[in-house]
Structures are given as structure tokens and as C-alpha cells.
């Protein structure tokens, strides 16, 4: 028997739009109920099952709380596995990536913490736009290619945002 759908673990319908706070609260509730410590005196089989359930729950939560991972998962549920790292095949976005990378290098070279904060807000806006675009098209078979293109863009922005946070921490020290 395959593992249950990540959404089903949280009593949710598969959807891109999620209430992150509600998801976190539900995760903590469920995690408490299957925490391996609660099964310390239980038979070995029950301990193993609790551990497996705890691991599944954690994996589901990590996937659902992250927009690009959630998007990939939704596409996979629809039978479309995308490789995790894919070069973006759209020239327009490639140009945008190069501009962002140059800007990030300039911010790093100038150690401009205020500039990093502004850059981060711009990335967040771009991420929100991608999220909205993906939410509108992920379950429409006619718009599959668009959804896949948006997921690749989401992955890039997620990675870039992570790099920006690391730069911010270095400059903050």
C-alpha cells in the first residue's frame, strides 16, 4: 500500500493555496499524537509504526509548507514528475535571472544591507505573482506547460531568496 497523500494527512483537499499558519498548527497537533516518545513503552511494532508515521508527517509538512515543493508535488499528483533541478528554457526569465544575480553581486560587493532588504521585498513580490499564476493554472490540463514553467521559476526564486537571506546574515554579523 502506498503512503497516503500529503494533503490527506492534514485533512486537506489538494490545492496550491494553503493557510500556512493553519498547516503549522495542524502539524504540531498531529506530530504530538505520533511522537515516538509517546510509544516508548509500547510493543516494538507500535514503536516502528509511530516512527514511520512521524517521518511521513514530517515529510508531508516540509513539502506542503514550501510553495515550489508543494507545486511540484501537485504536478506529481497529476502524473507529471518534474526533475528537481531543471534549466529554465524561457529566455525572458533567463535574462531576469542574470539581472537579479548581478544585482545580488553588487549588493554583496557594496555590503549594502538596506539595498538587500529592498531586493528581498522585490523577490517576495515576484514570488507572490508566480504563486498566483501557478494557483490559477496547475490543475488545468490545457495549461500544464505554463504550470511547469512557473514551477521552474518558483524554484529559482526560492533558491535566490535563500542566498539573499544568507547574504543578509553575513552582512548583519
Could you provide a short overview of the structure?
With 173 residues, the chain is mostly helical. The protein has helices spanning 6-9, 20-34, 44-65, 67-77, 91-110, 113-137, 144-172.
Characterize the structure shown.
- This is Co-chaperone protein HscB homolog.
- Residues 5-77 form the J domain.
- GO terms for molecular function: ATPase activator activity; protein-folding chaperone binding.
- Interacts with HscA and stimulates its ATPase activity.
- The protein is mostly helical and 173 residues long.
- The protein folds into 2 domains: 6-65, Helix Hairpins; 91-172, Monooxygenase, CATH 1.20.1280.
- The protein is 73% helix and 0% strand.
- The protein is built from 7 helices and no strands.
- Helix 4 (67-77) runs antiparallel to helix 7.
- It starts with 5 loop residues before the first helix and ends with a helix.
- The relative contact order is 0.12.
Amino acid at each position: 500500500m502506498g503512503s497516503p497523500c500529503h494533503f490527506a494527512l492534514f485533512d486537506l483537499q489538494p490545492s496550491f493555496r494553503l493557510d500556512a499558519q493553519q498547516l503549522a498548527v495542524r502539524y504540531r497537533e498531529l506530530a504530538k499524537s505520533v511522537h515516538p516518545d509517546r510509544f516508548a513503552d509500547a510493543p516494538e511494532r507500535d514503536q516502528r509504526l509511530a516512527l514511520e508515521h512521524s517521518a511521513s508527517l514530517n515529510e508531508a509538512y516540509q513539502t506542503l509548507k514550501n510553495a515550489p515543493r508543494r507545486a511540484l508535488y501537485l504536478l506529481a499528483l497529476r502524473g507529471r514528475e518534474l526533475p528537481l533541478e531543471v534549466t529554465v528554457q524561457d529566455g525572458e526569465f533567463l535574462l531576469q535571472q542574470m539581472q537579479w544575480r548581478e544585482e545580488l553581486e553588487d549588493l554583496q560587493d557594496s555590503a549594502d544591507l538596506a539595498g538587500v532588504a529592498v531586493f528581498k521585498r522585490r523577490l517576495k513580490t515576484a514570488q507572490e505573482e508566480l504563486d498566483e499564476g501557478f494557483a490559477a493554472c496547475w490543475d488545468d490540463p490545457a495549461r500544464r506547460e505554463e504550470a511547469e514553467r512557473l514551477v521552474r521559476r518558483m524554484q529559482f526564486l526560492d533558491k535566490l531568496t535563500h542566498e539573499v537571506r544568507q547574504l543578509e546574515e553575513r552582512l548583519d554579523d
